[in-house]
């Protein structure tokens, strides 16, 4: 009964193996994190029953929402971006819980931005477009409630938050789906490739 209540409230499946280890299964990393934190609290608390489960999960969601905002600010500030809306920063905060081939999206984004800015400085490109293009290039990867490629989903989000056209273009072409729109879009693509393919970045 408790397992069923927990799965229903979190949208995450609980799997128990032969050694009684608990595995939380979901494609959504935020749901998994809410489930993990909630389960840890419930086990520590000891009062495990459906009403208490829902109460703890609601509490955890609110706390995680605050954490995502702080994490989003940290990632944006490390990239030198200070003018984004709170809602967009919360979405960026999700990078903390997303990986691709074992590479953490938050670390990859910060690393890519530093590389992009170095290149922009060398060739005299617009550093602000490169900075935001690098920070936001993979934002579509943390969208889990819509269908589409991460590039399409990313462009959709950035239009919603009225991000400058040049930045949206850099995000739109960073997988060479279309011809590059500017020198800045080429730099975002190159910085992404360097960060993703450097030795030790992925497994």
Q: How is this fold's topology laid out?
A:
Elements lengths: L1 H9 L2 E4 L5 E4 L3 H17 L4 H29 L7 H8 L5 E2 L2 E2 H19 L3 H10 L13 H11 L4 H8 L10 H15 L6
Antiparallel strand pairs: 1-2, 3-4
Helix pairs in contact: 1-3, 2-3, 3-4, 5-6, 5-9, 6-8, 6-9, 7-8, 8-9
Can you walk me through this structure?
This protein is mostly helical. Helices cover 62% and strands 6% of the residues. The protein has 9 helices and 4 strands, in the order H-E-E-H-H-H-E-E-H-H-H-H-H. The mean pLDDT is 93.
What keywords describe this structure?
203 residues, mainly alpha, two-stranded antiparallel sheet, 62% helix
Shape: elongated
Which structural class do you get from the secondary structure elements?
A: mainly alpha
Radius of gyration: 19 Å
Query: How much helix, percentage-wise, in residues?
Result: 55-70%
Q: Note the run of SSEs as H and E.
A: HEEHHHEEHHHHH
| Beta content | 5-15%
The main sheet comes to: 2 strands, antiparallel
**End-to-end span in angstroms?**
39 Å
Q: How many beta strands in the DSSP annotation?
A: 4
Low-pLDDT stretches are: none
Quaternary assembly: single chain
Spatial arrangement of strands, main beta sheet: 1-2
Count of helical segments? 9
On the 0 to 100 scale, the average pLDDT is 93
């Amino acid at each position: 009964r408790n397992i069923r209540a927990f799965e229903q409230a979190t949208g995450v499946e609980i799997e128990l193996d032969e050694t009684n280890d608990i595995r939380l299964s979901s494609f959504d990393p935020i749901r998994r994190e809410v489930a993990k934190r909630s389960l840890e609290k419930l086990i520590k608390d000891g009062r495990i029953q459906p009403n208490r489960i829902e109460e703890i999960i609601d509490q955890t969601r609110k706390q995680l929402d605050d954490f995502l905002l702080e994490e989003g600010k940290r990632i944006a500030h490390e990239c030198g971006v200070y003018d984004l809306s709170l809602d967009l920063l919360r979405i960026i905060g999700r990078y903390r819980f997303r990986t691709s081939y074992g590479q953490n999206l938050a670390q990859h984004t910060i690393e890519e931005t530093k590389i992009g800015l170095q290149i922009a400085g060398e060739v005299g490109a617009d550093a602000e477009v490169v900075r935001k293009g690098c920070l936001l290039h993979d934002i579509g990867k943390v969208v889990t409630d819509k269908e589409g490629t991460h590039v399409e989903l990313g462009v959709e989000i950035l239009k919603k938050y009225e991000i400058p056209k040049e930045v949206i273009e850099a995000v739109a072409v960073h997988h060479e789906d279309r011809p590059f729109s500017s020198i800045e879009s080429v730099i975002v693509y190159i910085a992404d490739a360097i960060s993703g393919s450097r030795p030790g970045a992925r497994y």
